[in-house]
Write a structure and sequence with these properties.
By secondary structure, the chain is α/β, with parallel strands linked by helices. Helix content is 56%, strand content 9%. The chain folds into two domains: 78 residues, Winged helix-like DNA-binding domain superfamily/Winged helix DNA-binding domain (Arc Repressor Mutant, subunit A, Orthogonal Bundle); 164 residues, 3-Layer(aba) Sandwich (Rossmann fold). A five-stranded parallel β-sheet has the order 2-1-3-4-5, with helices on both faces. β4, α12 and β5 form a beta-alpha-beta unit. It is elongated and about 75 Å long. The chain starts with a helix and ends in a 5-residue tail after the last helix. About 3% of the residues have low confidence. One of its GO terms (biological process) is carbohydrate derivative metabolic process.
Length: 284
């Protein structure tokens, strides 16, 4: 599949104008990343309009970027952990300070987008749901699992009945048995997307559980399965996905919840601190 795409963008027919050449070179050099792009993101990087990118894709024989992405996904794997680009060039960029400077700037840009997320209606809906739920269940997979466990642990200091679910029982019955109304599932899933994530969200909604989905811009099914979507930028750098953006979002959510709950959090932390002293988990 990938070879066919490369042959297309390398043809003279698809390299006539300046914009043709820009798009062709971008696709050629970033083929592994195309399944996680949008027409808007490609246009932004090339300083073109999304309509120009769309017209180019139609000349390639695809009815939009989704069709091209589908063909690429059928023919290749796109791991979250990969080095994109010639290793020798990346090593040179590190020696010159360019690579790390670029990664820092990307994180700064992403944090700016996180601020926009905190002012959105979805953010407030998620905060209200996490505070008002009878029980909160947190789930995640693969390389974001540890961050989600951290969030669940910290959230348990602010309110009761918070649990990380790992699905090892094969059923997620603690979440899906319908024994308590008003449950919320906070599902973390970023690329590569876990096979269990979408079915879990669908089953949760079928069971009357409200689903908050934390994901990135590449998720193709977010709106289909979630009541509330918190969407953050995906990785665009030359190295694998980092955790800085996700950790920032989680910490901001916890801070927001603590401020809203106020004295309730202080009372709960006091109770937990007393229990920690009783069981001797911490040094004085």
């Amino acid at each position: 599949m990938a070879q066919r795409i490369l042959k297309l963008v390398q043809s003279e027919e698809l390299r006539r104008s300046k914009s043709d050449k820009l798009i062709a070179h971008y696709i050629e050099r970033n083929l592994a990343e195309i399944p996680f792009e949008t027409a808007k993101s490609i246009a932004s990087r090339l300083e073109l309009s999304p309509m120009t990118v769309g017209r180019y894709l139609r000349r390639m024989g695809f009815d939009g970027l989704e069709q091209l992405k589908h063909e690429l996904r059928r023919g290749s794997s796109n791991p979250a952990w990969q080095v994109k680009g010639p290793v020798d060039r990346l090593r040179e960029d590190i020696r010159e300070g360019k690579l790390l400077a670029g990664l820092i700037q990307e994180q700064i840009n992403n944090l700016g987008m996180v601020y926009e997320l905190t002012t959105s209606p979805e953010w407030q809906q998620a905060i209200d749901a996490l505070i008002g739920a009878s029980e909160v269940y947190v789930a995640a997979y693969q390389n974001v699992r540890g961050i989600a466990q951290y969030f669940a642990s910290q959230l348990s200091y602010t309110r009761s009945r918070v649990q990380f679910v790992d699905g090892l029982n094969g059923t997620y019955s603690e979440l899906l048995d319908g024994s308590v109304e008003g449950r919320v599932l906070f599902l973390h899933d970023v690329r590569r997307f876990a096979a269990k994530a979408k079915p879990l969200a669908m089953e949760a909604r079928r069971a009357g559980v409200k689903v908050i989905l934390y994901t990135d811009e590449y998720c193709p099914w977010a709106a289909e399965v979630a009541d509330i979507c918190l969407v953050v930028p995906g990785s665009h750098g030359p190295l694998w996905d980092g955790a800085a953006t996700t950790i920032a979002v989680m910490d901001l959510m916890l801070s927001n919840i603590i401020v809203v709950l106020g004295d309730e959090v202080s009372e709960r932390v006091g109770m937990l601190t007393r229990l920690q002293d009783v069981f001797g988990d911490f040094e004085a």
